[in-house]
Amino acid sequence: MQPEALILPTSHITHHHRHWPHSRTEDAELTEHAMINAGQAIVCSAILDEQSKQDVMNSILFAQLAASAQYDRCSQPKDWYQFYTNILGNVGWVTTQHNIEDIVLDKDQPVRVDQFIIDYLNDKMDAVQLASMKRLITALQNVHDLSVKLFCSSAATDHQANFQLGACTQDTNKNVTISFGSICYTTTTTIENPLFATILHGKCGIASFQSMTLNEQIYGRVRDTIVQKLGQHAEKLTRDLILPSDT
To answer: What is the pTM of this model?
Structure first.
């Protein structure tokens, strides 16, 4: 993929590098670090180095914005998600596992989205990743937090939502991997926070799970172009999110 083929809305773009913040507890100990990245919330492991963290955040934000320039995130979720994953593949993310399915509920009682997504990810993520997802969901409960407000406004309209929750790490060979669940749904109730709305029985949306590894050689060829095209979008659409302490 040629850098000139990467397309984003160009209004109000400035060219500068975004330095992603470290965890506030970095002086005391290495901890997981969570970020809101538009409509995606990501937990990064403590071993993820700074350059890799920037690459993850920039590439994922870029893919979201590129998809949203072509399709409405909430009213055209299947087209949006396909475009989003295609962009990730084009910039260097290699898919190692991908499942997508309709959300069909056979229960008579409404199901809360956070409960659904944990059940959905239970046999797809390992215990460490699941624990991170539960802490992430807890952190996303406070709708008055500015980071949570960013997530909610990016991921949902009054009755539709499309968001991703991910866990990112790095192995001993410096390979960066991310696993994330995506939920797109429609509900008759007004959505204040897309994670804590209720969905009704029957077919009401789609769920997917994807694991990817970043090809550094491919991404290295488009890294600077992505940073330039993101410009101040990286400042406006990302925020640090404080995770709850382990109990």
So the answer is: 0.87
